[in-house]
Amino acid sequence: MMVENSEDYIMLSGIQHFEFCQRQWALIHIEQQWNENKLTFEGSLIHDRVDDPFIVESSAERFVSRSVPVVSHRLKLYGIADVVEFIKSPSNGAAILGHEGLWKPYPIEYKHGKPKEDDCDILQLCAQAICLEEMLNIPISEGAMYYHKTRRRQKIKFDETIRNKTIETAKKMYSFFSAGITPAAVYVKKCDNCSMFDICLPKMNYKPGSVEKYIKNNLIE
After folding, report:
1. Pair (88, 169) in one structural domain
2. DSSP 8-class letter at 97
3. Where in the sequence is the domain holding 173, given as residue range(s)?
4. How many separate domains does the chain show?
5. Pairing with 68, which of 28, 48, 54, 210 sits 20 to 30 Å away (CA)?
6. Contact 26, 185 (CB under 8 A)
7. Strand 77-88 to strand 10-11: parallel, antiparallel, or no bridges (unpaired)?
8. What sign has the CA pseudo-torsion 57, 85, 77, 170?
9. Can you point out the beta strands (E) in 46-169?
10. Residue 199 shares a structural domain with residue 147
11. Which pTM does this prediction carry?
């Protein structure tokens, strides 16, 4: 994977953060701040088990690659796909170095917890597929999410709606990144489980006097 002027590219994994909360994404990917909590720690343990490039699974009709570097020069995204299954496909596959024949990639993203109500995980998976399409010059119609709590795959179709949303989200991320914009904090219920809560301090940004109120309610106890 060749990425010239990599400082001009943004991390593909950030698309999930951006969809969840644009401020969270900016704190992590623009301001380079990070804070671990129980959910992110458990998630990293799951990825440690999955993202082992020395684990090889293969047969005559299928092989599995882990921790696959991906890039889209069109969207200026780069990152790592957890798992990509390659299925033999003589009619519409791509040539893969070290493997005879043509192969169709099937990206799989592993996540802690269970399927979410929003599209943040799906957009990340679709972004991986778009990168692979650009790298291999073939269309990829679907992939899968695997959630640790449900312990089964959820098939994801990369339809026009999801593709368009992924592309528009990536473009908006890049515009924020280029301008160095960190959106202001707005407190909502999901903030309570965010690993960045103590850095973001969303409850301090409502109105004049809110800093004093925050200290009184949260620090002097």
Report:
1. yes
2. T
3. 6-183
4. 2
5. 28
6. no
7. parallel
8. negative
9. 57-58, 62-72, 77-88, 94-96, 99-111, 142-147, 152-157
10. no
11. 0.79
